[in-house]
Amino acid sequence: MKTLFLSLAFVVLSSILMAQTSERRGYIGLSMGPAFPLVDAYTSAPIDVVARTGTTLIVINFGYCIGRNYGITGSSMGVKFRVDVGDSFIKVTYGGLMGGPFFTYALGERVDFDVKAMIGLVSTKLYLNDAQGKTTSGLGYAFGTGIRYSFAKKWCVLLYGDYIAGNPLNSEERINMASIAISAGVAYRLK
């Protein structure tokens, strides 16, 4: 009888502890921040090129753990910045849908460190001196790391740094684009 009572107490206590430590396995949120264009990706001509800091908006920032430390990630993002080329300027905007794997490591009870790699479709628009120029689409990719801080049971703060690049093609030429994006935002934690 004593063994049965201890076994039952162990099962009940274990289920209570498991219920208290049930974690949320993913997140979906919104983030934004500055974009730092990489000038070498835009020109190889020996002219004066100055890239201006732009903006990044990640409308959908998603991650979901399939296993303990790995899962899938995806984003719908847009980047905009200006590049001064000699006496003229080019406004560059690009956006896309990307997805891929991510790895996550718990740094504490509320803090997670993520590493992600994504690939997907990117559309690029160029505006030469405010006149719309070429629009192209093609393959894009991103690599990034970030910190998630869970400040509530269902909410977390995101802070990510991403390298976003691609080579959209059209029938005439290849348009190279690349930037470093730093973004901060908030996300809902998924079960």
Summarize this structure as a short list of keywords or feature phrases.
191 residues, single chain, mainly beta, 66% strand
List the helices and strands and how they pair.
Elements: H1 2-20, E1 26-37, E2 49-51, E3 54-65, E4 70-85, E5 88-106, E6 111-128, E7 131-150, E8 155-166, E9 177-190
Antiparallel strand pairs: 1-3, 1-9, 2-4, 3-4, 4-5, 5-6, 6-7, 7-8, 8-9
Model description:
The protein contains 1 helix and 9 strands. It is 10% helix and 66% strand. By secondary structure, it is mainly beta. The radius of gyration is 22 Å and the shape is elongated. A hairpin with a 4-residue loop joins strand 7 and strand 8.
Mean pLDDT: 82
Rg, nearest Å: 22 Å
The helical percent reads: under 10%
Distance between the termini: 39 Å
Helix count, DSSP H or I runs of 4 or more residues? 1
Question: What kind of sheet is the major sheet?
Answer: 8 strands, antiparallel, barrel
Strand content: over 45%
**SSE class:** mainly beta
Secondary-structure element order, as H and E? Answer: HEEEEEEEEE
The side-by-side strand order for the widest beta sheet comes to 1-3-4-5-6-7-8-9
Low-confidence stretches: 4-22
What sort of overall outline do the alpha carbons produce when their principal axes are compared? elongated
Number of DSSP-assigned strands: 9
